[in-house]
Write a structure and sequence with these properties.
By secondary structure, the chain is mostly beta strands. It has one domain: 7 Propeller (Methylamine Dehydrogenase, Chain H). The chain contains no helices and 32 strands. The strands form 8 sheets. A 5-stranded antiparallel sheet has the order 3-25-24-23-22, with no helix packed on it. Strands 4-29-28-27-26 form a 5-stranded mixed sheet, with no helix packed on it. β10 and β11 form a beta hairpin.
């Protein structure tokens, strides 16, 4: 059974009491999954730090008056820009905007990426750049989900495929060279996507009946995170949709994963002590260690992992964060944001975006 490094250990001993193994995986040596041997596990409440991450207002982009934004999804594009997809209140379209690396918008107002008809409105959206196509999953109020290919500038949609059910968020992930889309129709369903970005064949049906679903790449496999009540289940999926699946035996809501692009990932969640993380390794099966407390309470967590340190963000009367250092995760503050929780927010790699009223902000608490 895998083990994690015991904090404060001077003899290199391991503690396996809190490690849960999923699937078939052997980890050699003594080192907590996701950490190099000798690093501290951070398995304790961590003190507040003095880290500061200033937010940048996206000047020149005005979302306009109307109902508040209810969902924001962010993806990183090939040139380092970010694509943002929005849904808002009782307005039916999916809206989109491109934010360039210098934090300037491509245009002064969001575009209508996908109008909606027939009395249905879009209630959720998830977008991703897969290296060839910009893909979108749009959940409608009539119980249907649309998987669409979108114009590179988010000005419109190009193709669509309609399914009964609710979209995952994020809805897309890659295993090997194959991209997949996930949604919920009673049980969890995963569709393979062709080279044109559109679904091919019948979906793979998983036995879980989750309340929510999210997908992320972890090396040559996709990690599927599912929440049912206060239980989280994770599946590691290969390019042929073979999978290893099991639930963690601890309270868990709001799971959100981030990956190093290889075989390591970590999941931020709300657990028994508040904001917690679990360490995941996915090669060729799946195994994890934890949960490990961050030392904070809150809701709606986000895991973030870019080219710098890992960090965790969450909501607690505003956006809070903790950044990983040599001795664990240290708390910090995001400055230059309005008071209180945002209307909607999301994170991708090491960047976060938040909407307050008609204004969008960008922040990078993971640092360099």
């Amino acid at each position: 059974m895998p083990a994690y490094y015991r904090p404060g250990s001077t003899d290199g001993s391991c503690d396996t009491s809190r490690v849960r193994a999923l699937g078939c995986l052997i980890v050699a040596g003594c080192g907590r999954i996701g950490f190099q041997s000798g690093e501290l596990a951070g398995d304790a409440a961590l003190p507040d730090g003095s880290l500061v991450a200033p937010a940048i207002e996206i000047v020149g982009l005005d979302l306009g008056a109307g109902d508040p934004v209810t969902r924001l999804s962010v993806t990183r594009l090939a040139d380092g820009s970010h694509g943002l997809g929005f849904t808002r209140g009782q307005l039916s379209p999916m809206l989109g905007a491109i934010i360039k690396p210098d934090a300037s918008p491509l245009g002064p107002a969001p575009s209508t990426v996908s109008p909606s008809g027939g009395g249905a409105i879009y209630t959720d959206t998830s977008i991703v750049w897969n290296g060839t196509h910009l893909l979108g999953a749009l959940e409608a109020s009539d119980g249907t989900t649309y998987f669409k290919t979108l114009a590179p500038d988010l000005s419109t949609f190009l193709t669509f495929d309609q399914f009964t059910g609710r979209a995952g968020n994020p809805s897309f992930a890659r295993a090997g060279s194959t991209w997949f889309a996930g949604y919920i129709d009673g049980s969890a369903q995963v569709l393979a996507l062709g080279g044109d970005g559109r679904p091919t064949g019948a979906p793979k049906v998983f036995p879980a009946t989750p309340d929510s679903l999210a997908m992320i790449d972890v090396g040559e496999r996709a990690l599927l995170s599912m929440q049912t009540g206060a239980t989280c289940t994770f599946s590691s999926i290969d390019a042929n949709l073979n999978n290893a699946t099991q639930a963690i035996d601890a309270p868990c809501t709001g799971p959100h994963a981030a990956s190093d692009g290889q075989d390591r990932a970590f999941v931020a969640l709300v657990g028994a002590t508040g904001i917690e993380i679990i360490e995941v390794i996915s090669s060729p099966g799946i195994a994890f260690a934890g949960p490990f407390p961050i030392g904070a309470t809150g809701r709606d967590p986000r895991a973030a992992w870019g080219t710098g340190p890992r960090c965790v963000m969450w909501l607690d009367d505003g956006i809070q964060f903790a950044r990983e250092g040599a001795s664990g995760f240290a708390r910090g503050a995001i400055t230059n944001l309005p008071a209180g929780d945002p209307d909607a927010w999301d994170a991708i790699d090491d960047a976060g975006f938040a909407v307050y009223g008609s204004t969008v902000f960008r922040f990078s608490p993971c640092g360099a």
